[in-house]
């Protein structure tokens, strides 16, 4: 790249999370950084947007090296929409989201605010990457993955991404020397087996907490789950054309238009 | 079907919305109906789930013909998870979501709480359909589409759905006699061009409302947008494997593992 690329950074853990600060530190080495991120944690908000409530946006100053940094009362997808339409003077060259505190591999991609922000950027025609580390801890160590974040980001800036494709990158929780490499993978078939933890308010009313256990149903060795379990960084190309093209022939054999 | 099928009904407009009441009235003709739906409007919540807040679930009695009807303080996806794990004694034969007041065609599928509920059922291995009518009005007329809802539902119960496939069904706002038929379609390439309506609180603080204009970028005659504009009911098979399989070769040509 001749000119410094313009990079939009967001996340779903909130603008003060160590994960986004680590991501910002890497992006500052690569380009001009603009940050628009939620003012509070927004994990598992999926592709939610705020249409029945108001949005508050505040210019803030966490990092003196960054001129344009805003917190937003909305969801990660709101942040991307607001950045692109109200803050940025031109379309950014890249949008990166994360680093998420916790996995967004396999089916988690669909619940993830981090990935939904990246997907939203993709819908708006911006090359986009979501980064996640398999460590839910607030004090997770992001140092071991910084070099790989930089490498993947530079490859995207150099090669571009196929139209309608966003990268979902997950890092195993390992020391840098123990990471075996980077693998391009497909999304594993997996799901959450839910359990609802039933409790009572002090006033005797029942309420529930959603909890669950992750179940990988996919024995393939080409999946993100396999790669992560075996010490690799997983890179899954993700699309927002949800059409199951392979199912169209079957549906067209149905008697939908007979009386 | 020999035995009456067990049908889970949900939506994102809330349990009292005319759309879900219309859907329930059709499903009562087909099977045993269980309703678990949000206690308030949850439009555009996407695939959000409630993990940082508590869930309240209340047994309610809107329709005396239905034994099992619950309202839930969470999102449409929470409703499906709670129904499957806590309320239903066996896996339902079908989950239907809607009828949404407003379109969930093309890219709207990704923001839609209605479709996310159906997709969640799909993830849990339940055949699922989301229904939407292109009329945002609370008093929209659902009578003209009831016969087609029944036809599509019976076809799904008879044929099953391919694994990992959910149906996204949208109805044009037309009289029954003016509906031309049912078309199996792909998701049109479209997006929202956002505009943020800036206002001030009575105390002088800026805030915003997210608004926007829908832009169809796709001239194909095989899309859901084309079908709806031309008086057809659109049926798009939707999948939750988001892997862009066609992009994997390209990514594998990158220098991701070189030093």
TrEMBL record, chains A, B:
Catalytic activity annotation: a ribonucleoside 5'-phosphate + H2O = a ribonucleoside + phosphate
Survival protein SurE-like phosphatase/nucleotidase domain location: 7-194
EC primary class: hydrolase
Keyword Hydrolase: yes
Sequence positions that bind a divalent metal cation: 12-13, 43, 100
Cofactor: record remark: Binds 1 divalent metal cation per subunit.
GO cellular component term of the entry, any: cytoplasm
Pfam families: SurE
Residue ranges the record marks as coiled coil: none
Names of the cofactor(s): a divalent metal cation; Mg(2+)
Enzyme Commission number, as recorded: 3.1.3.5
Subcellular location: Cytoplasm
Main subcellular localisation: cytoplasm
Keyword terms: Cytoplasm, Hydrolase, Metal-binding, Nucleotide-binding
Single GO MF annotation: metal ion binding
NCBIfam families for the chain: PRK00346.1-4, PRK00346.2-2, surE
Described purpose of this protein according to its UniProt entry: Nucleotidase that shows phosphatase activity on nucleoside 5'-monophosphates.
Family under the similarity heading: Belongs to the SurE nucleotidase family.
Protein name (record): 5'-nucleotidase SurE
